[in-house]
Write a structure and sequence with these properties.
Strand content: 5-15%
Radius of gyration: 25 Å
Helix content: 40-55%
Number of strands: 8
Largest sheet: 8 strands, mixed
Distance between the termini: 29 Å
Mean pLDDT: 84
Low-confidence stretches: none
Structural class: alpha/beta
Amino acid sequence: LQLVYHTLHTISDWTVHGYYSELYVQGEENVPRDGPLIMCVHPTTTTRYSTSQPSVTVTIPYRRQLCFWTKSTLFRNPLSALILSSSGAIPVQRNPNRDDGSSKAALFHSSTMAFANGKVIGVFPEGTSYTEPTIAQIMSGAAWAAVEYTRWQREAGRAVTKDAVIIPVGIVYTDKTRFRSSLRVQYGTPISMSEYVDELFHSPMGASVDAYGVVREITQRIEQKLFAMTINASDWETLYAAETLRAIVYGRERKLSLKDWVSVTQRFIDLLSDPAPSEPLGRVKELLIKYYSLLRRTGLLHSDLPCIPSSSSRLRYLFNLALPSLHTIILAPLYLPTLLLHIPACISSEVMMKLVADSDRPEGFAQCRAVGGGLGVVWLLWLYYGRVTGIDY
């Protein structure tokens, strides 16, 4: 079973470091080396195609084993159920209203056993996949799991070595639609269940009554911390306008450090979120949205646009514009062998994109292309190895 987990961990490592050009991790000191731990993971503008799960698996300190809550429908296929169970995944019913309570009990029991074995529970607290410019909802499942484990510790008279800890994790992509973009992972300050022991077990109102209040408070704290670590806007237009303003002010992506990426972007969003903006500010936002639309229509970034030349320097400007093309033509004979080697990867990446990617979720295009291209390279190396060794596949 450990072999399956370590294999998936290695694949996650390749995926994250292969897909992203830069990875910034903050708050690693907040993650304890051992003890029961719940990771509440929120990727900005959440999507089912995002690499958020591998991102946490790869960056978690001390290489602690993560057991993610996974929707129960993925366990229906025997093969996927075997892989998921072997990797430590815990099935969860997405619509608890259709359940008589047995699936919740099974979920919390499995989570408690994972805690007892020193593993880490990974939770996406929204409870579903969506793409929105802000956090839509934070469900109470993580808080209930921590409360149930705390009850299990004390009500059975077991020795309490360490209390359960919840750590919110914010994941931010500089451009989730683009291959070799950058990724930012931040581990927030921990929420320890030791703060709620008295309220749960020594209250005159009774533990069953006070548990609901504790769960509500923990859920609110998780939500507050996730909002502080991620980028959130009231609507898409405000988010796009803020991103365009950031590109104009800082130019190329790497001129703004990933450490400051969230705070700077959120500051621009707050500036443009005034419900009753002054006329100049409203006009600026309108122009930013129009400029964003033009860039998207042409497939360009702001940093791709050269400075507009003056009339006296147009000849030099045309020369500089044509120089890269001339350089490519001259060196084409050297590029050709490498290009031929990558044709299978190009074909497989396009096939993967058309078969798997959802047209309503453009962020999946680049990721499917990356995965498909990797499969094409693996197939080519496999074929080459067979030719060299004489093995007939």
